[in-house]
Amino acid sequence: MAGIRELRGRIKSVGNIKQITRAMEMVATTKLRRFQDRAVASRPYAEEITALVGRLSGVLGEEVGEMPLFREGAGDKVAMLLVSSDRGLCGAYNSNAFRVLEAWVRASGLEKDQIDFFVYGRRGYQYLSKRGYNIARFIVEPPLEEIDFNNAATTTKAVIDAFLSGEYREAKILFTTFKSMVRYEPEVVPFLPISAATLAPTGRTQEEAEDEAENLSGDIILEPDAEAIFESLVPRYLETRVYSALLESLTSEYASRRFSMKNATDAASDMQAALKMVYNRKRQEGITMDLLDIVGGVEAQR
To answer: I need a labelling partner for 179 at 20 to 30 A (CA). Which of 11, 31, 138, 259 fits?
Structure first.
């Protein structure tokens, strides 16, 4: 069993680790609130622009299917935008995303050379590189924490240009959806070509969506016409989807990091308490032995 001096050193070391994990938990909590506010604030805009694009596509009808972004590409490869973290110490955030990725690859029946990745986050880049996946673009600047709508628009344009090049048949996004402080789920969602499923109205029934499309085509006068508005809205709609995915992933990352650091702090507290108990017992045993030696020496002198 460890001696008193060694136990004292271990108690101090665990205390230092506990201070670090507690500080990291507080930082993660602060950043979580900031990114959560941004993610929540962006959701109404994302929902409305999705609903508007869906209503306008209903007005245009079959014309939409002839647009390049609404039909499958000519190639046989798939482009995927993968959102991971730059740093670790965020629990199972990255490993859950990678597990969903591997499950999707198996289900799709695609070979590794048939998938090109656009990657946010060093952890994702390291994971894909070690396993021999093709990385078309690793987005380093700006860091994910400093991302804004303009940066998301630049990334969106890169994915759209790749899709329109004819090399890919579709594009997807793998990101982590923030559900609550303790629930965040990675998922693979379709991005291009745009389909009716991605334009499904949120909070509206199918009958309500059809009524709105009928109103747009009937009583409401659009200036410029519906097709011109639609063509200008579609890029902004795609940019909004990418921006929302980045914000959701960032929020999920810090929620996971906060939970992980809280668990580490609690584990350090438990370990420190257990070590102190052993330390006190050893110290008491030492005091008892010293007293016995003293009493034995006194008795021997008598």
So the answer is: 138
Residue in the block written with tokens 């909070």: 203
Distance CA 268, CA 59 (A): 61
What is the Rg, in whole angstroms, of the alpha carbon atoms belonging to the chain?
29
The one-letter amino acid code at 208 reads: E
The residue with greater pLDDT, 229 or 274, is: 274
Residue ranges in the chain assigned as alpha helix (H): 4-60, 93-108, 122-130, 149-164, 206-217, 226-301
Q: Are residues 88 and 162 in the same domain?
A: yes
Residues 67 and 90 in one domain: yes
Q: Give the residue with greater pLDDT, 137 vs 297.
A: 137
Strands 134-139 and 115-120: parallel
First to last CA, the chain: 36
Q: Is residue 302 in a domain?
A: no
Question: What's the number of domains the chain is made of?
Answer: 2
Q: Which residues contact 298 (CB under 8 A, 6 or more apart)?
A: none
Question: pLDDT tens digits for 11-62?
Answer: 999 999 999 999 999 999 999 999 999 998 988 988 888 888 888 887 777 7
